[in-house]
Amino acid sequence: MPTRPVHALLLPPGPAVFDAVRRALDGEGPAVLPLAPDLPRPALEAALEALRPTHVVTPDGVSRYAEGVPAAEETAVIIATSGTTGTPKGVELSAAALRASATASLERMGARPGDPWLCCVPPSHISGVQVLVRALESGVEPVIHARFSPAEVIATMTAGGPHHVSMVPTQLRRLLDHVAGLGGGRGADLSMLGTILIGGAAASSRLLSEARAAGARILTTYGMSETCGGCVYDGEPLYKVELKVGGDGRVRIRGPVLFSGYRLRPDLTAENVEDGWFVTSDLGELDGGRLRVLGRADDVVITGGQKVVTGLLADLLAEHPAVKDVVVVGRPDPEWGQRVVAVVVPADPFAPPLLEDLRVFCKERLPAYAAPRDLELVPAIPLLPNGKPDLAALRESPAR
């Protein structure tokens, strides 16, 4: 079977990464494994040991990795899955799958050839890679920011006109706050942006309403590395993407956007693919073909023998007027097994929500056992490098 080299890219976000992805998709260069250049050494060594690229590329040059293994010829990009525990997994994506995803995305957005793109999410994650692929399919070179900065996003839009962009909800929240601050009390105005694709985590209805009221054109997306990123937009699957929910409540996905397998882990691939369907770790329900994601299967808190879906509860809490941002986690409890904890960023730091008020609010819509038993107020939700909440850190009780 023909193979191709695999280059681990330890490069800062920028034109060199974009060119490497372009060459990988066009078959002109090796497959690429983009990694964050500032990875701590233990994390980098774990990724290299698990994913075994043939070469490592840094700003200083290209070096051979002694334990490297080539990839199948169809593999264009390998994404190292994020996670705070366990060995990194390498999601192998073909050029055909990446292009199918990008083409369907552009069609759903109504994007036109030549529309500019801004990449302000890490190209070491699928969200960033797909911004680069969408730009390729649009025939443009994207503007790539080294890190997310609301001020730099606005500067790019002001200087170059509307750019399409992908963000996680926390980035949108910070952008709204920044623009509102510039407005001198007149409120935020996001009409200068192109389409904003929101993914990586569930966005609250309040955040979306606020952004749309500020003139933003937003599409919510659902997907993961194994589906080349977002493959469901506003609950509706992209072209040729099929959805179903199994008896275990987990969402299953099939279509041309699926990954080829986990690098060097055929056992893991077999565990997660059933008859051509990728079995996600998310619980969901379908209503007339429209998907509603309830939360991750492993983010169910069992308290007093009752199951609480944390994502569902967080969505409800986010609707409370005193809550600006919220994550729900389970923490050990000697009586209940786990207690439900709401980690909240107050809408007004000088008038934070009270636990009892939040419990009453929740009991109006959910069973009493689902109401949070503890409330932790924080100035901001801690995030992983990919912009998602750091659940491992949040599950640890704060120092008293």
Jot down its keywords.
400 residues, alpha/beta, Rossmann fold, GMP Synthetase, Chain A, domain 3, 3 domains, 7-stranded mixed β-sheet, 5-stranded antiparallel β-sheet, 11 helices, 28% helix, 31% strand
Describe the model.
There is one protein chain. The chain is an alpha/beta fold. The protein has 3 domains: 3-94, Rossmann fold; 104-294, ANL, N-terminal domain (Rossmann fold, 3-Layer(aba) Sandwich), CATH 3.40.50; 296-394, GMP Synthetase, Chain A, domain 3, CATH 3.30.300. Helix content is 28%, strand content 31%. The chain has 11 helices and 26 strands. The protein has a 7-stranded mixed beta sheet with strand order 10-9-11-12-13-14-15, with helices on both faces. Strands 16, 17, 19, 20 and 21 form a 5-stranded antiparallel beta sheet that branches. The chain has a 4-stranded mixed beta sheet with strand order 3-2-4-5, covered by helices on one side. α3 packs across α4 and α5 (150-160) crosses α6 (169-182). The N and C termini lie far apart (59 Å). The relative contact order is 0.10. The mean pLDDT is 92.
